[in-house]
Amino acid sequence: SGTRDVVAAYWAAAEARNWDVFGALVADDVFYELPQTGERVQGREAYVRFNSEGFPGEWHVIIDRIVVGERDAVSLVRFTDTNGSQTGLCFFELDHDGLITSIRDFWPEPYAPPAERARLVERY
Amino acid sequence: SGTRDVVAAYWAAAEARNWDVFGALVADDVFYELPQTGERVQGREAYVRFNSEGFPGEWHVIIDRIVVGERDAVSLVRFTDTNGSQTGLCFFELDHDGLITSIRDFWPEPYAPPAERARLVERY
What we know:
The structure is a homodimer of 124-residue chains. Chain A is of the alpha+beta class and 124 residues long. Chain A is built from 3 helices and 7 strands, in the order ααββαβββββ. In chain A, strands 2-1-6-5-4-3 form a 6-stranded mixed sheet. The mean pLDDT of chain A is 97.
Protein backbone atom coordinates (compact mmCIF):
# COMPACT_ATOMS: atom_id res chain seq x y z
CA SER A 1 0.00 0.00 0.00
CA GLY A 2 0.99 3.64 -0.28
CA THR A 3 1.09 3.95 3.49
CA ARG A 4 3.62 1.13 3.79
CA ASP A 5 5.78 2.74 1.08
CA VAL A 6 5.77 6.08 2.91
CA VAL A 7 6.86 4.51 6.19
CA ALA A 8 9.57 2.47 4.45
CA ALA A 9 10.78 5.61 2.64
CA TYR A 10 10.83 7.53 5.94
CA TRP A 11 13.23 5.04 7.53
CA ALA A 12 15.30 4.70 4.35
CA ALA A 13 15.73 8.49 4.22
CA ALA A 14 16.71 8.58 7.90
CA GLU A 15 19.22 5.77 7.40
CA ALA A 16 20.65 7.62 4.37
CA ARG A 17 20.67 10.98 6.24
CA ASN A 18 18.82 12.29 3.21
CA TRP A 19 17.05 15.11 5.04
CA ASP A 20 15.52 16.62 1.90
CA VAL A 21 13.73 13.38 1.12
CA PHE A 22 12.93 12.90 4.80
CA GLY A 23 11.41 16.38 5.06
CA ALA A 24 9.37 15.90 1.89
CA LEU A 25 7.63 12.88 3.47
CA VAL A 26 6.17 14.85 6.38
CA ALA A 27 3.47 17.52 6.39
CA ASP A 28 4.25 21.20 6.98
CA ASP A 29 2.65 20.98 10.40
CA VAL A 30 3.94 17.52 11.32
CA PHE A 31 3.66 16.74 15.01
CA TYR A 32 6.17 14.53 16.82
CA GLU A 33 5.78 13.25 20.35
CA LEU A 34 7.92 11.02 22.57
CA PRO A 35 5.57 10.13 25.46
CA GLN A 36 8.29 8.50 27.58
CA THR A 37 10.27 11.76 27.89
CA GLY A 38 7.55 14.33 27.28
CA GLU A 39 9.46 15.72 24.29
CA ARG A 40 7.56 17.25 21.40
CA VAL A 41 8.50 18.80 18.06
CA GLN A 42 6.15 20.71 15.78
CA GLY A 43 6.55 21.61 12.13
CA ARG A 44 8.64 20.20 9.29
CA GLU A 45 11.66 22.41 9.72
CA ALA A 46 11.97 21.75 13.46
CA TYR A 47 11.37 18.04 12.93
CA VAL A 48 14.06 17.70 10.27
CA ARG A 49 16.46 19.59 12.55
CA PHE A 50 15.58 17.33 15.51
CA ASN A 51 16.47 14.28 13.43
CA SER A 52 19.49 15.66 11.60
CA GLU A 53 21.09 17.36 14.64
CA GLY A 54 19.65 15.43 17.59
CA PHE A 55 21.35 12.12 16.89
CA PRO A 56 24.98 12.81 15.95
CA GLY A 57 27.43 9.98 15.46
CA GLU A 58 27.08 6.58 13.94
CA TRP A 59 23.69 4.88 14.01
CA HIS A 60 21.66 2.56 11.84
CA VAL A 61 18.04 1.60 11.69
CA ILE A 62 16.51 -1.58 10.27
CA ILE A 63 12.78 -2.13 9.81
CA ASP A 64 11.63 -5.32 11.48
CA ARG A 65 7.93 -4.97 10.70
CA ILE A 66 5.26 -2.51 9.59
CA VAL A 67 1.57 -2.88 10.45
CA VAL A 68 -0.35 -0.82 7.92
CA GLY A 69 -3.81 0.63 8.35
CA GLU A 70 -5.46 2.89 5.85
CA ARG A 71 -4.03 6.23 6.95
CA ASP A 72 -2.02 4.99 9.88
CA ALA A 73 0.78 2.54 10.53
CA VAL A 74 3.10 1.22 13.21
CA SER A 75 6.70 0.33 12.54
CA LEU A 76 8.88 -1.89 14.68
CA VAL A 77 12.53 -1.01 14.11
CA ARG A 78 15.93 -1.96 15.43
CA PHE A 79 18.12 1.07 16.12
CA THR A 80 21.83 0.44 16.60
CA ASP A 81 24.50 2.88 17.71
CA THR A 82 27.78 2.67 19.60
CA ASN A 83 25.83 1.92 22.81
CA GLY A 84 24.21 -1.16 21.31
CA SER A 85 20.83 -1.96 19.89
CA GLN A 86 17.32 -0.84 20.83
CA THR A 87 13.80 -1.67 19.74
CA GLY A 88 11.70 1.28 18.57
CA LEU A 89 7.94 1.38 18.00
CA CYS A 90 6.63 4.24 15.98
CA PHE A 91 3.01 5.25 15.29
CA PHE A 92 2.41 7.23 12.10
CA GLU A 93 -0.65 9.09 10.83
CA LEU A 94 -0.91 10.24 7.21
CA ASP A 95 -3.08 12.78 5.47
CA HIS A 96 -4.93 12.21 2.21
CA ASP A 97 -1.90 13.32 0.20
CA GLY A 98 0.16 10.59 1.86
CA LEU A 99 2.18 13.04 3.96
CA ILE A 100 3.01 12.06 7.53
CA THR A 101 1.12 14.32 9.94
CA SER A 102 2.00 12.74 13.25
CA ILE A 103 4.69 10.52 14.67
CA ARG A 104 4.73 9.10 18.17
CA ASP A 105 7.49 6.72 19.15
CA PHE A 106 8.31 4.41 22.05
CA TRP A 107 11.60 2.84 23.11
CA PRO A 108 11.00 -0.05 25.50
CA GLU A 109 13.99 -1.26 27.54
CA PRO A 110 14.72 -4.79 28.78
CA TYR A 111 13.72 -5.55 32.37
CA ALA A 112 13.85 -8.52 34.74
CA PRO A 113 10.93 -10.93 34.43
CA PRO A 114 8.75 -10.90 37.59
CA ALA A 115 9.60 -13.93 39.75
CA GLU A 116 5.98 -14.46 40.82
CA ARG A 117 4.92 -15.51 37.34
CA ALA A 118 8.00 -17.60 36.50
CA ARG A 119 5.97 -20.82 36.74
CA LEU A 120 3.62 -19.52 34.03
CA VAL A 121 6.22 -18.77 31.32
CA GLU A 122 9.21 -20.12 29.42
CA ARG A 123 12.39 -18.05 28.95
CA TYR A 124 14.15 -17.42 25.66
CA SER B 1 -13.11 -4.45 10.41
CA GLY B 2 -13.18 -7.95 11.90
CA THR B 3 -9.60 -7.60 13.06
CA ARG B 4 -10.42 -4.46 15.03
CA ASP B 5 -13.38 -6.23 16.65
CA VAL B 6 -11.23 -9.18 17.70
CA VAL B 7 -8.63 -6.93 19.33
CA ALA B 8 -11.32 -4.89 21.09
CA ALA B 9 -12.99 -8.11 22.30
CA TYR B 10 -9.62 -9.41 23.56
CA TRP B 11 -9.13 -6.41 25.83
CA ALA B 12 -12.79 -6.35 26.88
CA ALA B 13 -12.56 -10.02 27.91
CA ALA B 14 -9.33 -9.36 29.83
CA GLU B 15 -10.89 -6.37 31.60
CA ALA B 16 -13.94 -8.51 32.46
CA ARG B 17 -11.75 -11.48 33.55
CA ASN B 18 -13.91 -13.51 31.23
CA TRP B 19 -11.30 -16.19 30.52
CA ASP B 20 -13.64 -18.39 28.50
CA VAL B 21 -14.28 -15.59 26.03
CA PHE B 22 -10.62 -14.59 26.17
CA GLY B 23 -9.48 -18.14 25.40
CA ALA B 24 -11.96 -18.48 22.55
CA LEU B 25 -10.35 -15.48 20.79
CA VAL B 26 -6.93 -17.10 20.51
CA ALA B 27 -5.78 -20.05 18.41
CA ASP B 28 -4.98 -23.46 19.96
CA ASP B 29 -1.30 -22.85 19.30
CA VAL B 30 -1.24 -19.13 20.17
CA PHE B 31 2.23 -17.79 20.75
CA TYR B 32 2.96 -14.99 23.23
CA GLU B 33 6.27 -13.19 23.59
CA LEU B 34 7.46 -10.35 25.82
CA PRO B 35 10.76 -9.30 24.21
CA GLN B 36 11.76 -6.99 27.08
CA THR B 37 11.91 -9.87 29.58
CA GLY B 38 12.44 -12.83 27.27
CA GLU B 39 9.24 -14.46 28.54
CA ARG B 40 7.24 -16.70 26.24
CA VAL B 41 4.00 -18.66 26.51
CA GLN B 42 2.75 -21.22 23.99
CA GLY B 43 -0.72 -22.66 23.58
CA ARG B 44 -4.19 -21.52 24.55
CA GLU B 45 -4.36 -23.20 27.92
CA ALA B 46 -1.00 -21.87 29.09
CA TYR B 47 -1.79 -18.42 27.75
CA VAL B 48 -5.14 -18.21 29.52
CA ARG B 49 -3.43 -19.33 32.73
CA PHE B 50 -0.66 -16.75 32.29
CA ASN B 51 -3.28 -14.01 32.06
CA SER B 52 -5.71 -15.29 34.69
CA GLU B 53 -3.07 -16.20 37.29
CA GLY B 54 -0.10 -14.01 36.38
CA PHE B 55 -1.67 -10.67 37.26
CA PRO B 56 -3.52 -11.04 40.55
CA GLY B 57 -5.05 -8.05 42.28
CA GLU B 58 -6.85 -5.04 40.94
CA TRP B 59 -6.02 -3.81 37.44
CA HIS B 60 -7.79 -2.16 34.54
CA VAL B 61 -7.01 -1.72 30.91
CA ILE B 62 -8.32 0.95 28.53
CA ILE B 63 -7.75 0.92 24.78
CA ASP B 64 -6.23 4.18 23.58
CA ARG B 65 -5.87 3.22 19.93
CA ILE B 66 -5.84 0.29 17.51
CA VAL B 67 -4.00 0.33 14.18
CA VAL B 68 -5.58 -2.35 12.04
CA GLY B 69 -3.98 -4.16 9.12
CA GLU B 70 -5.60 -7.02 7.26
CA ARG B 71 -4.55 -9.90 9.50
CA ASP B 72 -2.49 -7.93 11.98
CA ALA B 73 -2.99 -5.06 14.39
CA VAL B 74 -1.29 -3.02 17.07
CA SER B 75 -3.09 -1.79 20.16
CA LEU B 76 -1.98 1.03 22.40
CA VAL B 77 -3.46 0.55 25.87
CA ARG B 78 -3.31 2.13 29.29
CA PHE B 79 -2.90 -0.44 32.06
CA THR B 80 -3.59 0.74 35.60
CA ASP B 81 -2.99 -1.10 38.85
CA THR B 82 -2.17 -0.16 42.43
CA ASN B 83 1.34 0.88 41.29
CA GLY B 84 -0.03 3.43 38.83
CA SER B 85 -0.49 3.51 35.13
CA GLN B 86 1.57 2.13 32.22
CA THR B 87 1.43 2.29 28.45
CA GLY B 88 1.32 -1.04 26.67
CA LEU B 89 1.85 -1.72 22.97
CA CYS B 90 0.68 -5.03 21.68
CA PHE B 91 1.22 -6.59 18.23
CA PHE B 92 -1.38 -9.17 17.15
CA GLU B 93 -1.46 -11.59 14.23
CA LEU B 94 -4.67 -13.37 13.23
CA ASP B 95 -5.37 -16.44 11.14
CA HIS B 96 -8.01 -16.67 8.43
CA ASP B 97 -10.66 -17.70 10.96
CA GLY B 98 -10.01 -14.49 12.88
CA LEU B 99 -8.29 -16.27 15.77
CA ILE B 100 -5.27 -14.59 17.34
CA THR B 101 -2.16 -16.63 16.58
CA SER B 102 0.53 -14.41 18.02
CA ILE B 103 0.82 -11.64 20.57
CA ARG B 104 3.95 -9.65 21.28
CA ASP B 105 3.77 -6.79 23.76
CA PHE B 106 5.99 -3.94 24.92
CA TRP B 107 5.84 -1.82 28.06
CA PRO B 108 7.93 1.35 27.62
CA GLU B 109 8.85 3.26 30.79
CA PRO B 110 9.35 7.01 31.21
CA TYR B 111 12.94 8.26 31.08
CA ALA B 112 14.78 11.57 31.32
CA PRO B 113 15.03 13.51 28.05
CA PRO B 114 18.65 13.73 26.83
CA ALA B 115 20.06 17.17 27.70
CA GLU B 116 22.06 17.40 24.46
CA ARG B 117 18.92 17.71 22.34
CA ALA B 118 16.96 19.99 24.70
CA ARG B 119 17.38 22.92 22.28
CA LEU B 120 15.63 20.90 19.56
CA VAL B 121 12.41 20.04 21.41
CA GLU B 122 9.56 21.39 23.51
CA ARG B 123 8.47 19.69 26.74
CA TYR B 124 4.93 18.73 27.66
